Amino acid sequence: MNRYIKLGYEGIELELPVHALYVYRNSEQLLKNITPLISEGIERQERCIFIGEEKDCKVLKKHFKEGLIIINKKINAAAFLPWLKSEYDKLPKNYRGLRVFMESDKEFLGYEDILDDFNTQTDLRLFLLCQYPIDKLESGQLLDVLKTHPYVFVEHLLKPNCFYSRVKHRVWLDPLTGIFNRRYFENQLSKELQRASRYEHSLSILFLDIDQFKKINDEFGHQVGDQVLQELSQILERSLRSVDVVARYGGDEFIVLLPETKKKHATKTAQRILKRIKNHDFFCNDLKVKELSISIGVAGFPEDAGGTYEIIKKADTALYQAKREGGVRVVVCS
């Protein structure tokens, strides 16, 4: 499955799942940008719904003879979430997902419950389309928009090629490393545990951190420490499958979700990561330290735990044991 979706004139890629506020200049620009997204959804056998102004509905109805559901009726913020849940729950089995485009207004800017409820549903793409008088919008006002709504995609706000015309803000990513953060991981883990329980699948997680990371910061400075965290994130992503989830849990701690993976296979993955990181040269030029080591704790569902925080705690306990035993090792929860 494609992990990205393109939006806008320049085809800027957003990672799935997409739940975006799209701030646009005028209806002509809006329709030109979302038409390819609607076509893509229809081709992927996703149920596509457009909710908007009558004049825009007429244009889309003329363009899409079939495959697009058009609703010429305003849905306010309070009623939107129940409606969205209802549409998602009754999605026919022959559809692979739900794609909703809704012309909205400023009352949706702070309506983050929508995103909290659906930010891990990879088969739902939600676009709130909000028109601003953007020819007069100053950069300070734009930053206020970003502060009040965490999931924002803004294009061509002031002038073409302006810095602010390509702003993306995604709260589920770690700002330093660019990988997922703790909040996203815990939400995704909760979803995967429910799925694993329902279909009687296994699931494993890896909890890891860098051995003696404080010494690196103390000796070489935090800038070098940040570089290490960034490179480590890239190694982890390259070492995993596309269905796996890697996140920075905090500081030098990272956590990995391995869906449909038994602990014995997760342990092999952990050993492979351990070896790859030990053989990687993180430090170049005049730095004396030439290698880095990590410790990893492994826990699995259903044998070790059944809940989100319980299984994380078990993996953390295994990691702590690995550190007590001198690090540079994998410890499996028993």
Task: Write up this protein.
The chain is an alpha/beta fold and 334 residues long. It folds into two domains: 4-169, Rossmann fold; 180-332, 2-Layer Sandwich (Alpha-Beta Plaits). The chain has helices at residues 27-43, 54-63, 77-89, 113-118, 139-148, 182-199, 213-220, 222-238, 263-278, 308-324, and strands at residues 4-7, 12-15, 19-24, 46-51, 68-71, 97-104, 124-131, 152-155, 166-169, 180-181, 203-210, 245-250, 253-259, 294-301, 330-332. Mean pLDDT is 79; it is low at 155-169. The strands form three sheets. The chain has a seven-stranded mixed sheet with strand order 5-4-6-7-3-8-9, covered by helices on one side. A six-stranded mixed sheet has the order 10-12-13-11-14-15, with helices on both faces. Helix 7 (213-220) packs across helix 8 (222-238).
Layout: helices, strands, pairs:
Blueprint: E1 4-7, E2 12-15, E3 19-24, H1 27-43, E4 46-51, H2 54-63, E5 68-71, H3 77-89, E6 97-104, H4 113-118, E7 124-131, H5 139-148, E8 152-155, E9 166-169, E10 180-181, H6 182-199, E11 203-210, H7 213-220, H8 222-238, E12 245-250, E13 253-259, H9 263-278, E14 294-301, H10 308-324, E15 330-332
Parallel strand pairs: 3-7, 3-8, 4-5, 4-6, 6-7, 10-12, 14-15
Antiparallel strand pairs: 1-2, 8-9, 11-13, 11-14, 12-13
Helix pairs in contact: 7-8
